[in-house]
Amino acid sequence: MVVSHGVTMQVAEDQLVTRCRAGDLDAFAQVYDRYERQVFRYAYHILGNRDDADDIKQETFVKAYQAIRSFRSESSLQTWLLKICGNLCRDKIKSWDRRKVTYDSTMREDEMGVTSPDDSPQAIVERKELEAVIAKALRGMPAPQREIIVLHEIEGLSYEEIAAVLRCTRTSIKLRLFRARKSLKERVASLMGARG
Amino acid sequence: MNSMFECRTVQNQIWELEGGSLSEARVNEIRSHIASCEACREHAAAVHTMRSGLHGMRTQALPASMLGWRDLANRVENVSMRRQRVSFRAIGGGTLALAACASAVFMFINTRTDLTLGSAAPGAHLGKLKLPGAGDPFKVAGGDVALAVPEDERSLSQSGIADLQTGANFTGPGLRSAPPRPSLSGTRRANIRMASNRSQATGTPVPTEDSEYPDGGAPRQALHSDYVLQSASSGNDEEQNRRYVIDVVSSRTTGATEGTEDLHPW
């Protein structure tokens, strides 16, 4: 595993965790470097805006630092961090619901997609359009369904890892994912149809 | 001709085609079905498009995060300092807990159901005596003592105190206590039985005295022997199950004279 932050070195995760437990801030900085992008992306896709995702990301790492001594390495650090992040996101959404805050994503379409220099202009436009449609469809989904799609299809977590993050069984994850995919497909088809 | 059931099964599994969770044989079956079924081919194409779109979002240029390690480090350092303070507090708390345990053990060692009185100096605190509940004997062997019921026991059970006070009045060789308070005298006295420990030792029947103050309300004559005081309270279950802890204080070390000054006036 490669860790940036000035120094590139191979550090086993368990060693990193051991050092973090001992209060080693440099080790925690490496954990941050390794996972902050993924945590941010997860929060961003769940919450739909950068500022909240930023706050949740920071909060996730503060909580992780506070609780690192209780981390028993039963799951990977990535799964553990995503679990914390997911909980914080759900709390955030609940607080929005309580305050009747409308879910208003500031995710901009021009933020979508990385283009390859080999792509033709038409291919780039088509991909951006597709990703924009999918992003819009995702945003329209209920949070639990959106969460599971993000974890599996975007973050690439296995059923077992998602089960660890969401604290449910593998069978339940498969069922929920099936429903979420079906819902996403219908939403995408509907949006595509609307665009003509 | 493809059955609707087969189409539905295939369409449900199309998402898994690229996930590697299906067996190779099943993947081949699905692929051959797709090749021959127009509806499933369309479905597979839609799923593929959607999937590539979702995968593209994994690498998409997300907006730059405004908060970096430097911001986090400040917060984490604060947490770290707070944690140190908490651990110092925990050490302090641990010390206190240890001291509490030690004193509890000390109390336990010093709380007994029998006490042998030696030649303790007048006024010496001889320890704590645990008085059993109703029907259980406790023993104070020889010497002059005064029984003092702790203040909190008084508030907890008046009937228990009455028993103690009354029982103390039955003792002969200087086992003394203050006379019962007027409000607690009377029928409670009858609930105390006294038996000579010596009688028990020789196997003779324990002479119990359902004592309505056999000596006319005066403290009983000194017997110069060991005594078993037995509470026979007929109070409610809660009272019967109570255990009293009393202080035993030496009032005299020799002889047994009536009218010794109370060391612990009620």
Which labels suit this protein?
heterodimer; A: 196 residues; mainly alpha; Arc Repressor Mutant, subunit A; two-stranded antiparallel sheet; 2 strands; disordered N terminus; B: 266 residues; alpha/beta; five-stranded mixed beta sheet; 8 helices; disordered C terminus
Instruction: Give the averaged pLDDT of chain A, no decimals.
Output: 81
Principal-axis shape of chain A: globular
Give, in spatial order, the strands making up the sheet with the most strands of chain A: 1-2
Number of helices of chain A: 8
Q: Per CATH, what is the topology of the largest domain in chain A?
A: Rna Polymerase Sigma Factor, Chain: A
| CATH architecture label of the largest domain in chain A | Orthogonal Bundle
Radius of gyration of chain B: 42 Å
Q: How many strands, which pairing sense, and closed or not: the largest β-sheet of chain B?
A: 5 strands, mixed
Distance between the amino and carboxyl termini of chain A: 45 Å
**Element order of chain A: H for helix, E for strand:** EEHHHHHHHH
- Give the H and E element order of chain B: HHHHEEEEEHHEEHEHE
How does the helix and strand content of chain B classify structurally?
Answer: alpha/beta
Shape of chain B: elongated
Largest interface: A-B, 47 and 33 residues
Let me know the number of strands of chain A. 2
Oligomer: heterodimer
Mean pLDDT across residues of chain B: 54
**Number of helical regions of chain B:** 8
Q: Supply the helix-strand structural class of chain A.
A: mainly alpha
Q: Describe it for me?
A:
The complex is a heterodimer of chains A (196) and B (266). Chain A is built from 8 helices and 2 strands. By secondary structure, chain A is an all-alpha fold. Chain A has a two-stranded antiparallel sheet. In chain A, helix 2 packs antiparallel against helix 3, helix 6 packs across helix 8 and helix 7 crosses helix 8. The termini of chain A are far apart. Chain B has 8 helices and 9 strands. A 5-stranded mixed β-sheet of chain B has the order 1-3-9-5-6. In chain B, strands 2-4-8-7 form a 4-stranded mixed β-sheet. The N and C termini of chain B lie far apart (104 Å). The C terminus of chain B is likely disordered. The interface between A and B is large, with 47 and 33 residues.
